[in-house]
Design brief:
Order of helices and strands of chain A: HEEHHHHHHHHHHHHH
Largest sheet of chain A: 2 strands, antiparallel
CATH architecture of chain A: Orthogonal Bundle
Distance between the termini of chain A: 40 Å
Helix content of chain A: 55-70%
Number of helices of chain A: 14
CATH class of chain A: Mainly Alpha
Largest sheet of chain B: none
Distance between the termini of chain B: 29 Å
CATH topology of the largest domain in chain B: MetI-like fold
Number of helices of chain B: 14
Strand order of the largest sheet of chain A: 1-2
CATH architecture of the largest domain in chain B: Orthogonal Bundle
CATH topology of chain A: MetI-like fold
CATH superfamily of the largest domain in chain B: MetI-like
Strand content of chain B: under 5%
CATH class of the largest domain in chain B: Mainly Alpha
Oligomer: heterodimer
Structural class of chain A: mainly alpha
Shape of chain A: flat
Structural class of chain B: mainly alpha
Order of helices and strands of chain B: HHHHHHHHHHHHHH
């Protein structure tokens, strides 16, 4: 089953990416020409690099905001700050909702006459009002922030339980030696939870290369406005099923794209795993 | 020795940090809860009231819009489809997954490690990128536009993490107990079902929640493979529903409430299991 539905498609993609296609009929072998079209051909290369840039934004923003806050909150929760049980439960609520529901909900709040702009008017900050999803310069960041809203609880709890699993004697010993809180965190706790950091980093890499639903729901399949929120997966979906850009599906280039998604995921996951594993410390 | 961060026992600088942390967490809690609260009150209001008085409470509570969305707009149908897809997929994921992890973790044979790595490779690869070949396979099998193909894909994508988590649990099961059962004349099947499985029930619970939540929320594959309205699952149904009622905000908020509230209630009633389940896969 795993083989038929996960691994077989991988090899089929590689195979398919080297052929010329007319809709769903395979024509002749053309080697790496599909990759060439993707990287240099008109509108593919432009769209592709635009999309890659957006995926990069997703990764950087998610790492910087979501995972840093996750680490901060998770550490504080595991030190049993007052009310940690309640906070922990509430933080996890949005993680369980479907991306579609969350996307539409915030899509409504972020409309020009929606809740966010009304709130800004309420606190006399009209100058901050924006067309959150209509302005190409900020639309991607808006969608990323909505996703961070949904997902911060996850790294929080992963970091929390990994700090919880540490032997408490280490921290106690440091206390007795008179280490201050910052040193305890950076010199003792952080090196010991590198495995959890690895997990979260890899999941973030996979997640940000696979962004589709969020953009589809909040900005449409062609990444409105004017492709500014386009990601590799929405571009891939359009190429594979032929909407907007071209009337018919372009299987060859689409397969080339999926091979690239595979390779990027694989390469970055492996690199970050091996890089972080060097920093792992045994107790 | 007490090393917990309790605000009463802390010194002044630490107290400031803790108050700051409280403030941040409190802000995040408000940002989580208020939109949900606003969604529910908006579902009782008319579009005009939502835009003009977004923060006001509804004037009266009537469940008319809920009736419209649930019965007339066939949300009960989407709901049943989602229940079918999730429960059937999970049944097979747990059954096949536990058998596979039993095979991988309790026996020694050639190719054992290879088989395990084969399952693991499924975790790393993004299934979305396999869309084109999947589409062709499903079409060749004549399964497009059916719940069966969604269930099959869900089983395939659920198995790797299941095998990963469950075989971790099964490895810790003592060999001596297995030998004792074998001496008493248990068949392999009995050992799997009556000896090992009852012990790894906590693992099964983790696996169930870890897989069921994404399957319940899945949007991408039903979007691609299901065309007829009668077979849509809840996320896809919500998508087409919102596409139709772009101007009626009250109705949209009702649809959103209906798709969010069941999960919320389920979570509130068993939050510990959910937290352990969803994060369990990442920690194990």
């Amino acid at each position: 089953m795993v083989f038929v539905f996960i691994l077989l498609p991988l090899f089929m993609s590689m195979f398919n990416s080297m052929f010329d296609w007319n809709n769903y009929n395979r024509l002749g072998f053309i080697g790496l020409n599909n990759f060439k079209t993707l990287f240099t051909g008109y509108y593919y290369s432009e769209r592709f690099f635009n999309a890659i840039q957006n995926n990069l934004k997703w990764f950087v923003m998610t790492m910087l905001i979501q995972n840093v806050f996750g680490l901060y909150f998770g550490y504080m929760l595991s030190r049993r700050i007052n009310g940690s049980e309640v906070f922990k439960r509430i933080f996890f609520i949005p993680v369980l909702f479907s991306i579609t529901a969350v996307g539409f909900l915030w899509g409504l709040y972020l409309k020009p006459n929606g809740l966010i702009n009304s709130f800004l008017a309420l606190i006399n900050a009209e100058h901050l009002q924006r067309a959150w999803l209509g302005d190409g310069k900020i639309a991607t960041y808006t969608i990323i922030l909505v996703n961070i809203w949904r997902w911060t609880g996850f790294p929080t709890l992963v970091f929390m339980s990994s700090v919880d699993a540490l032997p408490i004697e280490n921290i106690e010993a440091a206390y007795i030696d008179g280490a201050n809180e910052l040193n305890i965190f950076f010199k003792i706790v952080l090196p010991l939870i590198v495995p959890a950091i690895t997990t979260i980093t890899v999941l973030t890499i996979i997640g940000s290369l696979n962004v589709f639903e969020q953009v589809y729901v909040m900005a449409g399949v062609d990444g409105q406005p004017n492709y500014s929120t386009d990601t590799i997966c929405t571009l891939f979906y359009r190429t594979a099923f032929g909407t907007y850009d071209s009337s018919s599906p372009v299987i060859g280039v689409g397969s080339a794209m999926s091979v690239i998604i595979y390779l990027l995921t694989f390469f970055f996951s492996i690199t970050s795993i091996s890089w972080l594993q060097k920093k792992e410390v045994e107790i | 020795m007490n090393i917990d961060f309790h605000i009463k026992k802390a010194k002044s600088t630490k107290k400031l940090t803790l108050i700051f942390t409280f403030f941040m967490m409190f802000v995040y809690v408000i940002i989580i809860l208020y939109p949900l609260f606003n969604m529910v009150i908006s579902s009782f209001k008319s579009t005009r009231d939502i835009i003009r008085y977004p923060f006001a409470l509804p004037e009266s509570i009537s469940f008319k819009s809920y009736y419209t969305v649930w019965i007339e707009k066939k949300f009960y149908n989407y709901f049943i489809n989602s229940v079918i897809v999730t429960s059937v997929s999970m049944l097979f994921v747990v059954l096949l997954g536990s058998m596979a992890s039993f095979g991988v973790s309790r026996y020694q044979y050639k190719g054992n490690t290879f088989l395990y790595m084969l399952f693991l490779s499924g975790i790393m690869l993004p299934l979305k990128a396999a869309l084109i070949p999947l589409y062709m396979i499903i079409n060749k099998l004549g399964l497009s536009n059916s719940l069966t193909c969604i269930i099959l894909i869900n089983i395939a994508s659920g198995l790797p993490s299941t095998v990963f988590i469950l075989s971790g649990f099964m490895r810790t099961f003592p060999k001596d107990l297995e030998y004792a059962a074998r001496i008493d004349g248990c068949s392999d099947w009995r050992i799997y079902w009556n000896v090992v499985m009852p012990v790894v029930i906590p693992g099964v619970a983790i696996v169930t929640i870890y897989n069921a939540v994404p399957i319940w929320n899945d949007f991408f594959f039903p979007l691609v493979f299901i065309q007829s309205d009668a077979l849509r699952t809840l996320p896809v149904g919500l998508n087409s529903f919102i596409g139709q009622y772009k101007t009626d905000w009250g109705l949209m908020f009702t649809g959103l409430s209906i798709s969010i509230i069941p999960m919320l209630l389920l979570y509130l009633s068993m939050s510990n299991q959910f937290i352990r389940g969803m994060t369990g896969g990442a920690i194990k």
